[in-house]
Give the backbone structure.
Amino acid sequence: MEALFAGAIVVPIIIIVIVLLALLPGLRTSMAFTVRTQENVIVERFGKFQRVATPGLNMKMPIIDSTTKPISLRVQQLEVNIESKTKDNVFVTVPVAVQYVIREDSVPAAYYRLSDPEAQIRSYVFDTVRSALSGLELDRAFESKDDIATNVETTLSARMREYGFEIVNTLVTDISPDQRVRDSMNSINAAQRDR
């Protein structure tokens, strides 16, 4: 009787162990995940923010927890070409390079508060550069390249800080007028040299 009772208990335990061993590799891969250096991953439980996973080996509950795509903490660069008009009605193209980074303490804000951060940054750059150039004549705009870059950086830093972004640097690399204006300027300069 005891042997029959022991066999009745041992057989289900062996079946449970075999099933667990068969499922364990799948459970193990859905429980553990790694995060690379200079990246963070957000862990959500049933779609609600749970925590930020930092670089290294991390654990999550299988099935109920999900992870987002890795969020880069490296400095990124966004290049924006702006066409605007100066005070003396000359159309110029201004390429602006914005270098930004997501602050490590603000990863959830950076992920959840903006759906398209690059578009938001681009909008602020357009607005700031256009308003700065509209009050400057062409010659003064060339001289004020650094002032425009500083103005853009100050405005962007103030606006994007609340979304978890830090503006590292803003560079106005060039101010180039329309081709016809450049040709006219070159012919005026050539005429002056000929005199």
Q: What stands out?
A: Strands lie at 32-35, 39-45, 48-53, 56-59, 65-67, 71-72, 76-85, 91-102, 165-172, 176-177. The CA atoms of residues 29 and 170 lie 42 Å apart.
